[in-house]
Amino acid sequence: NLINADKEIFLIDYLTEINSLDDLSIETRYKSAIAGSFDSRDKNGIGLISMRYHSQEPLKFSFQKSDQKVLFSLEMC
Hints:
By secondary structure, the chain is an alpha+beta fold. It contains three helices and three strands; from the N terminus they run E-H-H-H-E-E.
């Protein structure tokens, strides 16, 4: 995915955080995000939490910078 450069730091921090959660914590966060999505139009991060919840391993991610955009790559195992 191409993203704006200002989103790179947010994504690094967010992915590092969810990758560091233990199984119980990621399950709790996932269920909370799903429940909250019914109460709000804000769906930010549910996809990443869902991917981490269903993955057997932490999510692998990388960034490749160009002039004004950043190519964000994500791998789920």
